[in-house]
Write a structure and sequence with these properties.
The chain has ten helices and seven strands. Helix 3 crosses helix 10. It has one domain: 3-Layer(aba) Sandwich (L-fuculose-1-phosphate Aldolase). It is of the alpha+beta class. The longest helix has 28 residues.
């Protein structure tokens, strides 16, 4: 039987070759095969994203990452309730935007999946969402000190990182985002930004694709660590300017940087780069 790596490489070749089927006037069957191969790659990348974020200690037993459903933009794909380090393809589930499972099959979903659905509902430009509880980020959710992009790899965070306080609208809760009303409130606080902090809880990230989501989540944590260290030195740490944010984001998300980073993170996490 072929190895998993051989199978994954075959999927990549199939997607690359079959994606040009419409341009060449090839039959509908070829286009369907191209779509299936492309979807399989996106699902494999979602599994990889879970493993990477766990390996890099951005998430631990808790936290999750999703993609907008490649088959239906009014749905999303998220794993069942399981720690990210353990996620496999068979754990992935499809959900309606309101969090209703499409095919539960006795699998328990994450309780905070409404974070994902509410952001996809509000932002048509978003195709991947990460929710994390990074310990380096948490001080900025409770201190009143703003988290700002300080280093060139963190321009992807954007100029503004708002803080959402669930208590303001919903009173005293367990601080988890358990329903669409809470999710929509969070999505409203996020606005058009890339990141939003949740008071005493963590952060949510909205990205154009899962690879950019992983890179953003990783450097959100790194930037928080650097800013904390700079604040400990005293003085006023200098954040990136708007022009620097735009330029560094373009660089980080270019093939030159993104392909290199994705391969690096995948190899470290023991998954095939796709």
């Amino acid at each position: 039987m072929p190895s998993p790596n051989t199978t994954r490489r075959a999927l990549v070749r199939a997607a690359a070759c079959l994606a040009i089927a419409p341009l060449l006037g090839l039959p509908r069957r070829a286009r369907a095969q191209a779509d299936a191969a492309s979807e399989r790659i996106e699902l494999e990348r979602l599994v990889a994203a879970n493993r990477i974020l766990a390996h890099e200690n951005v998430v631990d037993a808790f936290g999750h990452v999703s993609i907008r459903d490649p088959q239906n933009p009014m749905r999303y794909v998220l794993a069942r309730s399981r720690s990210p380090e353990l996620i496999e393809l068979k754990d992935l589930m499809r959900f309606e935007l309101d969090g209703t499972p499409v095919d539960a099959r006795d699998r328990t979903p994450y309780g905070e999946r409404m974070i994902h659905g509410a952001i996809y509902e509000a932002r048509q430009d978003v195709h991947s969402v990460v929710h994390l509880h990074s310990y380096a980020v948490l001080p900025f959710t409770i201190s009143g000190v703003p988290l700002r992009p300080m280093i060139h790899t963190a321009g992807v965070l954007g100029a503004e990182i708002p803080v959402w306080n669930i208590r303001d609208e919903f009173g005293d809760t367990d601080m988890l985002v358990r329903n669409m009303a809470e999710g929509r409130s969070l999505a409203k606080a996020l606005g058009k930004n890339t990141c939003v902090l949740l008071r005493g809880h963590g952060a949510a990230i909205a990205a154009r694709n899962v690879r950019e989501a992983v890179l953003t989540a990783y450097y959100l944590q790194v930037n928080a660590q650097v800013e904390l260290q700079a604040l400990a030195l005293g003085g006023s740490p200098r954040a990136l300017s708007p022009a620097e944010i735009a330029a560094t984001t373009a660089t980080q998300f270019s093939p030159l940087a993104l392909d290199r980073a994705w391969e690096y993170f995948c190899v470290r996490a023991g998954v095939e780069p796709l």
